[in-house]
Amino acid sequence: MNIHKSIKTLLSDKARDFLKRPKQMLIGAEWRDADSGETFDTFDPATGDLICKVAHAGSSDVDRAAKVAQAALEGDWARYTPAAREVAIRSFADLIEANTDLIGQIEALDSGKPAEHIKFVDVALSVGALRYNAGFPSKIQGDTLPVTAPDMHVYTRREPIGVVGAIVPWNFPICQACFKLAPALAAGCTIILKPAEQTPLSALILGELALEAGIPPGVINILPGYGQTTGQAIVDHPGIHKIAFTGSETVGKQIAARGAAHLKHVSLELGGKNPNIIFADSDIEAAAATAAMSIFFYSGQVCTAGSRLLVEEKIYDRVAEIVVAEAAKFQMGHGLRADTTMGPLISADQLDRVSGYIDAARSEAVEISYGGTRCEGELADGHFFTPTVLTHVPDESRVAREEIFGPVLAMQSFSDTDELVKRANCTGFGLAAGIWTHDIRKAHRTAAALQAGTVWVNTYNQFDAAVPFGGYKNSGYGRDNGMAGIEKYLQTKAVWVNYG
Ligand code: NDP
Predict the structure, then answer these.
(1) Spatial separation of the C-alpha atoms in residues 448 and 480, rounded to whole Å
(2) Closest residue CA from atom 29 of ligand 1
(3) If you measure from the C-alpha of residue 454 to the centroid of ligand 1, how many angstroms do you get, rounded to a whole number?
C-alpha cells in the first residue's frame, strides 16, 4: 500500500468523524459558512493530499464576530464570578486533555508533526497554560491609593482589555492558540482566534470543546482564513481592541503599524536565530545530543530552535561528530506513524525556502557535513527535507544570520571568549539562547550578557506555563505565560469617591 492510502487506515473513528463534519467558522454558538460562501483547502504536508475545505472568513464575518464578542464581553461573560470563570477554564483544559488522541491525530495530519510529539508537548503545554491561568481570576485585584486630596477614597479595578484578536502560526497551532486564549479568558476578555491557513483544524476542535466546557457562546470565536484577508480584517477592525500575534518578523511589523492606526494594543512573538553555546568544560555528550534535538525537533520549524551552535574550538570536532550521528538517527515519515520522529516541512513554500538557504550556503562555499537534500522515494510527494548540519559557518553567511525555520544547523567555533557574546548577539533577533558549562560564574555572566528573552543553561527548549516567554530586539514584545502573560489582557481603571 502506498503512503497516501496507508495513512487513512491509521486514523481513529473519532478522527474520521471529525473530518466528515463540515469545517465552518464559529461565531457565538453558531457554526456557519462564510457570508461569501468561500472556502480554502487544507493539505496533508506529508503527502500533498487535500484533507478538506474550510470556511474562509471575510470582513463581514469578522465584523459579525466582533459584535458577538463585544456582546459576550458585556453580557454573560462579565456576569461570571471569578470562581465560575476558573471552573469554566479548568473544564476547557480537562476536555482538551480528554481529547488528546483526537487532537494528536488531526494536528499530525494537518501540520505533519509526529502525533506522539503533539500529545506530549503541544497538548500538554496547552492544558498547562489553561490550568495555570485558571488560577488567576480570583486573584486579579486592584489597590486602594493614599491620595493627598482630603475625604477621597481612591481605588483601582483591573478590567479586561476587551475583544482580543489572536493570530497564530502553523508550527504549534493548538499550543500557540492556548497561550493566548488562556490568559485572555482568565482576564475576562473575549477572543476571535484566526488559525494559520495551513493548520486550521485543531482550532475548530478547540471551538467545539470550549462550548462543551460551558464557556459562554461569543467568548471564543474561531475564524479560519488567510492572513491577507481574515487576518488583516481582524487587525483593521475598530471593535477589536488588542492583537496577540505570533509569526514572522515581516508580518509582525505590518501588524504593529496597522494596529497603531487604531491605537490597538499589540503583542508580538516573532521568531529567532538562537545561539546555543557549548564551552569545553561542559558535559559534551549531553550538550551535543541536546543541540541536535534543539534544531531537528519539528523539523526546525520552532521559533526557539537552536539554529546557531557556537562550540569552543578544542571540542568542535567531537561535538560535530555527535551532532551528525544524532541527525542520522531521525526516522522521517508521516506524523501518524508511531515510528516517525521527523515529519515534513509545512508547505511547498517552506520547502523551497529551506532549499534556497542550502543553495545560498553552497554558493558561499559553506561545508555541508550532513543532509542538505529533499527526500525522494515514498516521501517525494511530501515536503520532506533531511536534517542538515553545516559546519565552520562564517558569521557573515546568510545561514548564520537569518531564520531558516527548517532542520538546518549552522555550526561555528570560538576560541576567544571575550568576542563570544558579541558574536552570539550579532543578529537582529533576541528570542532564546543556550549555554553549556560546568562553571557557574561563566554561566551567570554569559546569561546576563546575552540579548534574549529566554536563556537555558545546561538544558534547552524547556517551557512551562509559569515562565514568561517572549523576545528582545526584533523577536517582538510582550510575554506569553507566567504572571507577565496576563498583564497584557488587563487594563487599570482608577475610581475616585468623594465622601466629604
Ligand atoms: P506569517 O507571519 O505570515 O503567519 C503567521 C500568522 O499571521 C498566520 O495566521 C497568517 O495567516 C497571519 N498573517 C499573515 N499575513 C497577515 C496580515 N497581513 N495580517 C494579519 N495576519 C496575517 O508566517 P508564515 O506562515 O508565512 O511563515 C513565514 C516565516 O515566518 C517562517 O519561515 C518563519 O521564519 C516565521 N515564522 C515564525 C513563527 C514563530 O513562531 N515566531 C511561526 C511561523 C512562522 P496565514 O494563515 O494566511 O498565513
Answers:
(1) 21
(2) 248
(3) 22
